[in-house]
């Protein structure tokens, strides 16, 4: 493989895996470490091979289970997501460096690129989740869909790097679409509020005119009587 092709494949891995970190950070890190341990299409750089050690994999497995289970609790998932934001960006940067390789050059590129891709996945996930649901079973089902999607995206991006470009591109499109819909919704509510105010002002003006007309008619009638 030529150097150019190596960079193309490495960037695809970086984009796909770091974007997936924004959805499930510990699951993604566990899967890439396990793939490297077994030699299944992904290899960690020498400085990060400790992530594939048995103690590291056990710790990552426990964190993954906790991440998946806690996300199924509606009262806890939003709080934990907010608190874990800095950690999620850090894990995205770490996975980006592991996916990119290429020594210090990869480190300089992988840290900001990985954190940015994780930010994208994290915010797309927040926009996708509804703020209120008609049933308590909705959020666990949405969370399960995220689990399956994140696992598939991480495995495919690690073993088939071109898929990483598709994962990142789809997530960017999804984020822009959801962001546009929410902005249009709030803009519509704001415009609707202005219409209500204008109508109320118009009604007040009409009431004042009618009251004034009654007073003038009453005044005219009293003069006629005199």
Oligomer: single chain
Shape verdict: globular
Helical segment count: 8
Strand elements, count: 0
Separation, N- and C-terminal Cα atoms? 110 Å
Number of domains in the coordinates? Answer: 1
Strand content: under 5%
Major beta sheet, specifics?
none
Low confidence ranges? 195-204, 221-226
The gyration radius over C-alpha positions equals 28 Å
Helix content: over 70%
Mean pLDDT: 84
Q: Give the class from helix and strand content and strand pairing.
A: mainly alpha
Q: Which H/E pattern describes the elements?
A: HHHHHHHH
Summed up:
By secondary structure, this protein is mainly α. The protein is 83% helix and 0% strand.
Describe the protein's architecture and organization.
- With 226 residues, the protein is mainly alpha-helical.
- It contains eight helices and no strands.
- Helix 2 runs parallel beside helix 5 and helix 5 crosses helix 6.
- The protein starts with a helix and ends with a helix.
- The C terminus is likely disordered.
List keywords for this structure.
single chain; mainly alpha; 0% strand; disordered C terminus
Task: Reconstruct the topology from this structure.
Layout: H1 3-21, H2 25-38, H3 54-70, H4 74-83, H5 85-100, H6 103-128, H7 138-159, H8 162-225
